[in-house]
């Protein structure tokens, strides 16, 4: 897989995205001179999981999956001489729903070229789930429920660790999505990493390396008004490079004009 690609792109099948067509995304990638892209639409959330966001639109509707696969397979064929297109998903790791997630992956694994495993949902001590990146107000509720900003960070990185260790079957995604997404509202809820937290992240990165995962180097955070930082943040990215974890660029585009935004090879080399 060439590094000159955008390996985290959403599509019109995203219920909270735009209606930009697959070919608009592909055209933008070609115009930028990228050689490969991955469409990584949010996989449907597990059966029985209640999406805590107000519009319950975090994942693709299950009845759209076949249409999504057909559409990506068709565009793959159309662009085959100009652009390598991977069919993929961004799969949510949700604590306690491993069986259902594995079932989804087993069902579609044969056609998946590339996939990302992300944490957007955090479970609190009562068993209730919260969406980490929905809004600064929702993040504020998380801080109240967990007791402090640091406790939210701790729970987030712990959930990522669980995602890395989880058994999701043979089609488990091999790339970890936006590993510092917890910083999305850091201008509203500032946090300075403690030594203990950096230690936790260092262990997590060592685990990621040992288990053979790669990292999504996601430029979306640079454009979030309350963040302004790459995911992973520069310190974590430097650590990941020192540990020689494979890195893949991703824009997390939810509209075609965002493909490849702020990409530089230096981010992953
Ligand atoms: Zn999305
Ligand atoms: Zn995501």
From TrEMBL:
Keywords: Amino-acid biosynthesis, Histidine biosynthesis, Hydrolase. Residues 6-220 form the PHP domain. The lineage of its organism: Bacteria, Bacillati, Bacillota, Bacilli, Bacillales. Pathway: Amino-acid biosynthesis; L-histidine biosynthesis; L-histidine from 5-phospho-alpha-D-ribose 1-diphosphate: step 8/9. NCBIfam families: hisJ_fam, PRK08123.1. GO terms for biological process: L-histidine biosynthetic process. GO terms for cellular component: cytoplasm. It holds the Pfam family PHP. This is Histidinol-phosphatase. It comes from Halolactibacillus miurensis. Its EC number is 3.1.3.15. It catalyses: L-histidinol phosphate + H2O = L-histidinol + phosphate. The keyword NADP does not apply. One of its GO terms (molecular function) is histidinol-phosphatase activity. The keyword Hydrolase applies. Belongs to the PHP hydrolase family. HisK subfamily.
